[in-house]
Amino acid sequence: MRKLRVLIVEDKRLMAAHLNAQLESLGHHVVGLVKDRREAVKSALELQPDLIIMDIRTPGMDGIDTARTIMGHTPIPIIFLTAYAAADFVRQAREAGVMAYLVRRVDKRQLHSTIEMAQPGGAGQRSPDEAAEAVRGGGLPTHAATAPEHGKEP
Predict the structure, then answer these.
(1) pLDDT digits (tens, 9 = 90+) for 91-142
(2) How far apart are CA 92 and CA 97, in angstroms?
(3) What span, in angstroms and rounded, lies between the C-alpha atoms of 29 and 21?
(4) What is the mean predicted confidence (pLDDT) over 54-80?
(5) What's residue 84's pLDDT?
(6) How much is the pLDDT for 116?
(7) Nearest 5°: phi and psi at 97?
(8) What is the rounded CA–CA span in Å between residue 42 and residue 7?
(9) pTM above 0.85, yes or no
(10) Residue 101 phi/psi, 5° resolution?
(11) CA 96 – CA 48 distance, rounded (Å)
């Protein structure tokens, strides 16, 4: 896998630091760390990263709308961080242009696999129903035990 320039959109400092360390240990370069929608859109347009890893929910931000805004300007692969993987969420994320997602408590192996899936031509090019089923069945890199089967993102 080639070295990527990554923008992290995450309001929780510990999670952001954990992602940063994992990305750098995989050989990637974190070009920015932002906490809200305005900064995410601005940084995506200015920095033109190869990949964005974005928390689906941060204060004052809907990740799906933010992804739509970014993708409306420039096609950058986006990976969502989420607490669940329901088919409806997957469908909305795909419609917004999101290439993949990770359920919280990400380990290095999962991050690596998901980044590969999110790249053009990667294994992430499956239907929303297939992707949600793969997450529930362990077919996508995720900690399925941390994902409630029903409900909304906390």
Answers:
(1) 777 888 787 878 777 788 888 888 888 877 654 444 444 444 443 333 333 3
(2) 9
(3) 10
(4) 86
(5) 66
(6) 86
(7) 100, 5
(8) 11
(9) no
(10) -150, 155
(11) 18
Q: How far is CA 21 from CA 18, 37, 51, 71, 148, in A?
A: 5, 23, 16, 26, 27
Q: What is the DSSP string of 88-123?
A: HHHHHHHHTT--EEEESS--HHHHHHHHHHHSTTST
Q: Give residue 36's identity as a one-letter amino acid code.
A: D
Using DSSP's 3-state secondary structure scheme, residue 146 falls into helix
Query: How far is residue 106 from each of residues 6, 37, 46, 129, 144, measured CA to CA in Å?
Result: 16, 22, 28, 22, 11
Within the chain, where are the H helices? 13-25, 37-47, 63-73, 87-95, 108-118, 128-137
The overall longest dimension of the chain from CA atoms, in Å, is: 38
pLDDT of 125-136, one tens digit each? 444 444 444 433
Q: What is the DSSP letter of 62?
A: E
